[in-house]
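Need the bound structure for TNX, inputs here:
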Amino acid sequence: AAAAVLATGACSGDGATASPSGTWHSLVPLPAEVAYRGAGFTIGRDTAIAAPPEAGRAAGHLAAAVRRATGWTPRIGGEGEIRLELTGERPGASGGAGSSADGPIVGDPGAEAYELTVDRDGARVRAGTPVGLFRGVQTLAQLLPRRGATLPGVRIADRPRFAWRGAMLDVARHFFTVEEVERYVDLLAAYKINVLHLHLSDDQGWRLAVAGRPELTAVGGATEVGGGPGGSYTEQDYRRIVAHARERYVEIVPEIEMPGHTNAALAADPALSCDGRRRRPYTGIDVGFSALCVGRPAVDRFLADVIATMARLTPGPYLHIGGDEVETLTQEQYNDLIERAQELVGAAGKRMVGWQEVGGARLAPGSVSQYWQTGRTPDDVHRAVRRGAKLIMSPASRVYLDMKYDEETRLGLEWAGLIEIEDAYGWDPAELVDGVGDDRVLGVEAPLWTETAETMDDLEYLAFPRLPAVAEVAWTPQEARDFGDFAARLAGHGPRWSELGVDFHRSPAVTWP
Ligand code: TNX
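Answer from helper R.:
Posting the output first, comments after.
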């Protein structure tokens, strides 16, 4: 059973405290503007949710949240005390790079704006788009008590700071089932994260079926780190994940790694190697040693098939082609392959995303570079920006969810440092790279590499509570953020995670109830 909408409201003594603004609540991410005032509204057995047809998904999620808090399920109809309203204006309808019928999921942040008010007569969420209503419903669900029916009086006006608020899950080092990925999506959606980037291939595993190339999953998918059985998604499995995510206004961005991190592909198809020899499956955790044979016709056909498959399965505009940590090619060979991939992605009507090393190649202005290497600002990032590319900020020392919290953490690596919740929270995406302010930053993403994570509990333990911290970095205006206030708001989420069976790290900076 999936987690669906988190209700974390504070009025039942479950841990939220007064914030500096003199209010009590557990809202994460903090809305841009929030003012508690006046009497609240108590949901009754005959309270109904009024919603237009386009807001069906938001209304359904809200009804489920009310049922969890109160035990009864509100009717969804044309009239009601809880109203979801689509306004005439559709901010962002002209901008953005989305393709869904009800507007882009990753587009103009204005398209996700909403207003929420609760007074003694009821609750109302207003937005220009269905996605805005859905984000507003997540806020309303967090205002509900864990058990109970009373919402506080409040006025909220909210919109995200960044368009791309992502999480990445590595299903290559260890495989995770459709149900596990769906559960992760549910947890993301509750924090208004709108992208799940799936790392679908690496040295240790190939996880996505490609038509006409059954050996990629049959051979490349049959193992994982440590030698376990691995696994892979059929096209139908993958479509289920995409549909489940869209239902929650989360975009799935697929990543197939190239030209490096490709041992699993080389084990499946010897024609992709320069020596024509089949590689043995790899179950260790080293990086950098594998690469496709750039320039070989067999490799060009492989690129075309793989990118066509990703494009066909992806309703959204972004395809990720990896591009990191190649140690066995010349810069010319590397650039050649990235530029070919970029052309194929463009010809499929999509935009290419790659790890920051892709900035070594000639990027198209619509391409996106994912910054990860902390400690210096590398030339490849500056080159990408000069070519007009935007950046996704994933500084390893802040947002790599696979790093240990402290020396005692039973899971995780530590090459980028130990990351407690203060570290994950306390940075500004517009201060990371000289000359790169809000306008060049597409957004923020928290990767979860899974060399050391094998189970859903492992994923949850590494992601919580750091993922909600990153969600607030990506959503909330910088000037409204304060770590002490965040920690106080976050406390109320602990009991809810426990109730949902979400394993989490009890970060010492938070006074968990
Ligand atoms: C670096 S950062 C990687 C991954 C590893 C990760 C482990 C990046 C683009 N690549 O291949 O899984 O470190 O923390």
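Comments: The chain has two domains: 1-158+483-513, 164-475. The radius of gyration is 23 Å.
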